[in-house]
Write a structure and sequence with these properties.
The structure holds two protein chains of two kinds.
Chain A (H helix, E strand, L loop, with lengths): L1 E10 L2 E11 L4 E5 L6 H9 L4 E10 L2 E2 L5 H7 L1 E4 L6 E5 H7 L4 H10 L9 E2 L5 H15 L3 E5 L7 H15 L32 E5 L13 E6 L2 E6 L2 H21 L5
Parallel strand pairs in A: 3-10, 3-11, 6-9, 9-10
Antiparallel strand pairs in A: 1-2, 1-4, 4-5, 7-8, 11-12
Helix pairs in contact in A: 3-5, 5-6
Chain B lengths: L2 H7 L31 H9 L11 E6 L2 E7 L6 E4 H7 L1 H7 L10 H8 L5 E5 L9 E7 L4 E11 L4 E10 L6 E11 L4 E9 L4 E11 L4 E8 L5 E4 L2 E4 L5 E11 L3 E10 L5 E11 L2 E10 L5 E10 L5 E10 L5 E9 L3 H8 L5 H12 L9 H17 L3
Parallel strand pairs in B: 1-5, 4-6, 5-7, 6-8, 7-9, 8-10, 9-11, 10-12, 10-13, 11-14, 12-15, 13-15, 14-16, 15-17, 16-18, 17-19, 18-20
Antiparallel strand pairs in B: 1-2, 3-4
The chains are: A alpha/beta, B alpha/beta.
């Protein structure tokens, strides 16, 4: 799905990421960990193709296609969707219109908004005066309409209250088509009409892929993940098939010791 | 007012705007056409553009003035509404002249008001009697069709207690007019618990100078909603309509959408004076320069306690040429009121464009979407067909300028 080779990225002339290699296969969800300011958001922004993030070396392949030089909207059209940390307000553009622009029919917009608890926000300007949690729900609602094959989430749980983290997780699963709803917890209506809730295999081959930045890992209780990475000093390290173990390691020993001692470069 | 005071005021410069030499224009009262039907095709299409429906469907009344002659002034049958030429009304109702004429706008304010006060009166007089609610809008059109014309208009609108009226006022000049000035004095009186919606669309030419002078007085519980749209070339327009809220609970909202193409100079403001407690005002302007010049003034004056008012001047520069100058003023005269303003002028924020691009829009589509959103002010009280036409105009404009 996503193949990153020897990627070096600079922002405003300053190199932030060095020689990043990352491979995300179809259906896999990778978790990106690391201290503040190491470039996690930069990596997601570079994958999305935001203007300020200049690729100095290396390349990004998506579904086999080299998108390193492709503008952001072409990447979106190819199937990459992003939730950024601080989305801007678009005055005068209603959330309803925005969700429809993302690809939902008016009817779908209504039902998805209801499911996301955003019905009352549909006729407000996109993100205008939204709280932290409302911003995340607004973003996920747009992404549900956009249906990306690669979902990039930058700290989806920040600012979200405990109750709504489950909702954020369910929405992410819906987009990833990882319908891991536990038995009895899942109703067809909750996931819209085109989701097969009885399919319980979160990592099925045909599922969509994801890259999630998280600090505390709350989202991982709801979204099954395949691999974890630590981004440390601009380099990707510590790849592990057990994200929860890595999180625990960080919590106990801190990033530096975790990277130095536990992972030793990491093995897949 | 004494004639000699007015004559002295003929040389009085206005507080704002370029000073215009009125002697360079012809202010005869000749009727160049006798009915709206006689207008040229370009003239007729201009009328349509400013919201005037010559078929008069879904309209309660129609007033058309061409240059300095009223050519049409008719009210649909059984509509309890008075509409006539201001001069005719002055003769018919001397008691109203005493009470309303030149009571909202001082005739010696500047040379433009003085000139209008001194000459024979043109313009429309509208009165809705107490308790009468007119649903279909009244349309009033003031049109300039003749070269070198000085057009004078004095409008008097009276809504008595509990009355309601929706006015569409379209002002335009024929495309052939190379030189002309329009002076429009409007005095509006919104009575107790009455509601007046006033939508004005301007479509002047690139050689036309425009000097409106408008004051609205709103009494207790009354509402005055004004929507103003000007998206066309105009040589030089300067206006600063004022709303005085003089009765408890009086409310006003002034929305303006200004788009200045290259060659346009717009000095347009909005002022609300909150004179008694419990009054509220909102003055909202969205201005876009595509090469033209915009000066956007705004003033809220809280002269009483417990008033609430908000002023917004937002401008988008879509061209390297031209300028937008926002001049918001808040004037609080007591220690217990709430007034705020927001002003922002500049280009479209690149992160907004990228945000939409990440949802699949190309740069042009993203820009157009943002421009369209920017122009989306909450316009109320328009008939559907007109609201649709304004929306289509804004859509078209946004798409054209998504670059």
């Amino acid at each position: 799905m996503l193949h990153i080779e020897h990627l070096t990225v600079a922002v405003n002339g300053k190199t932030i990421l060095k020689d990043i290699n990352l491979h995300i296969a179809p259906g896999e969800v990778h978790v990106l960990l690391g201290p503040n300011g190491t470039g996690k958001s930069t990596l997601i922004s570079a994958i999305m193709g935001f203007e300020r993030y200049k690729v100095l070396e290396g390349k990004i392949l998506f579904k086999g296609q080299d998108i390193t030089a492709a503008p952001c909207y072409e990447r979106a059209k190819l199937g990459i969707g992003v939730m950024i940390q601080r989305p801007p307000t678009i005055r005068g553009l209603s959330l309803r219109k925005m969700v429809e622009i993302c690809g939902a029919t008016p009817k779908e917009t209504e039902s998805m908004a209801k499911w996301m608890g955003m019905s009352d926000f549909l006729d407000r300007s996109v993100n205008e005066g939204f709280s932290g949690g409302e911003l995340k729900r607004s973003e996920l609602l747009q992404l549900m309409a956009q249906k990306p094959e690669l979902l990039l989430l930058d700290e989806p749980e920040s600012g979200v209250d405990i109750e709504n983290i489950a909702l954020v997780g369910r929405a992410a699963n819906y987009i990833l088509q990882h319908t891991d709803c536990r038995k009895g917890d899942c109703q067809k209506s909750c996931c819209g009409n085109n989701t097969e809730c009885e399919d319980n295999n979160p990592l099925k081959e045909s599922g969509h892929s994801g890259l999630i930045i998280t600090h505390l890992g709350h989202i991982l209780k709801y979204v099954p993940s395949s691999y974890a990475h630590i981004l440390y000093n601009g380099t990707l390290t510590c790849q592990s098939g057990d994200p929860l173990y890595v999180l625990q390691c960080i919590a106990q020993s801190g990033y530096e010791r975790c990277v130095r001692e536990t992972c030793r470069g990491g093995v897949r | 007012m004494d004639k000699h005071i007015l004559e002295e005021a003929l040389s009085k410069k206005a507080a704002f705007g370029n000073d215009i030499d009125l002697s360079a224009f012809d202010d005869n009262n000749d009727a160049h056409v006798l009915s709206a039907e006689e207008l040229t095709d370009t003239g007729k299409s201009k009328l349509e553009k400013v919201g005037i429906d010559l078929q008069e469907e879904n309209r309660s009344a129609t007033y058309v003035q061409v240059d300095n002659a009223a050519v049409e002034s008719k009210v649909k049958e059984q509509t309890p509404l008075e509409l006539m030429n201001t001069g005719t009304a002055a003769k018919k109702y001397p008691e109203l002249v005493e009470k309303y004429w030149w009571k909202a706008v001082k005739p010696d304010t500047d040379k433009y008001t003085a000139k209008t006060a001194l000459e024979q009166e043109q313009g429309y007089f509208i009165r809705v009697k107490a308790g009468t609610k007119i649903t279909a809008p009244l349309q009033a059109c003031v049109f300039m069709g003749h070269e070198d014309q000085l057009q004078r208009v004095h409008n008097v609108i009276i809504l008595e207690e509990d009355a309601e009226l929706n006015i569409i006022s379209g002002c335009a000049s024929d495309t052939s007019v190379e030189h002309g000035i329009h002076i429009g004095i409007s005095e509006m009186f919104v009575g107790k618990n009455a509601k007046l919606s006033f939508t004005m669309i301007h479509s002047w030419g690139e050689h036309v100078t425009v000097r409106p002078r408008t004051v609205t007085i709103v009494e207790e519980g009354g509402t005055y909603l004004s929507n103003y749209v000007n998206m066309e070339k105009v040589a030089d327009i300067q206006m600063y309509p004022t709303v005085r809220l003089v009765g408890k609970g009086a409310v006003t909202r002034l929305n303006s959408i200004l788009v200045a193409p290259e060659g346009a100079h717009m000095d347009i403001g909005g002022k609300a004076v909150l004179e008694v407690p419990g009054t509220r005002a909102e003055v909202i302007t969205r201005s876009i320069s595509t090469g033209g010049e915009i000066i956007n003034r705004g003033n809220l004056t809280g002269a009483a306690e417990e008033v609430q008012a908000h002023l917004e001047c937002h401008g988008l520069m879509l061209s390297k040429k031209g300028y937008i100058r926002a001049i918001p003023e808040l004037n609080s005269e007591t220690d217990n009121n709430e007034m705020s303003h927001e002003a922002a002028v500049g280009r479209i924020a690149p992160e907004e464009i990228e945000y939409l691009m990440a949802r699949g829009m190309n740069e042009e589509e993203a820009t157009a979407t943002i421009v369209r959103g920017f122009l989306n002010v909450n316009i109320e009280g328009l008939p559907d067909s007109l609201a649709e036409r304004i929306n289509t105009t804004l859509d078209t404009f946004s798409v054209q300028h998504g670059c």
